[in-house]
Specification:
alpha+beta, 3 helices
Length: 136
């Protein structure tokens, strides 16, 4: 797992000062990209190799309100992955260490043509190795 810190910005809130429901999509993406970077697998390298992880499904459930200027911590973990599919889980904590949001994203590997593809074996070996080594 990996933890990503984020300070809630004004533009992420609604008229009530509560985080707008659409903001969690961006938080999950930021945390996922940093998860890969932390593993030593910069997402740009995946793109440069001709692949993308297209979001096929996204889910988020707010458990408590999140307010402007709060510092949140997003825990990212990879639940399942193979050459063609990945699922990430997310748990968001507020400054009191309370869970305020839970969610997941499911991704399908696609090529530059946006058709289903398979990640190269070298990428899978590296990901497996890094996850087993405890760097996740």
């Amino acid at each position: 797992m990996f933890f990503h810190k984020h300070r809630v910005r004004f533009y992420e809130t609604d008229k009530m000062g509560v985080v707008h429901h659409s903001s969690f999509v961006k938080w999950f993406e930021d945390a996922r990209i940093e998860f890969f970077r932390n593993l030593g697998l910069n997402y740009k390298l995946i793109e440069d190799a001709g692949f993308n992880l297209a979001v096929a499904e996204i889910n988020g459930r707010f458990l408590e309100p999140v307010l402007f200027d709060e510092l949140i911590l997003i825990k990212v973990s990879i639940q399942k992955f193979n050459k063609i599919y990945m699922k990430f889980n997310y748990v968001v904590y507020n400054q009191k260490n309370e869970v305020v949001l839970k969610g997941y994203t499911k991704h399908i590997v696609v090529g530059r043509d946006l058709k289903k593809a398979k990640l190269p074996e070298e990428f899978m070996k590296k990901l497996n190795s890094l996850l087993r080594s405890g760097r996740d």
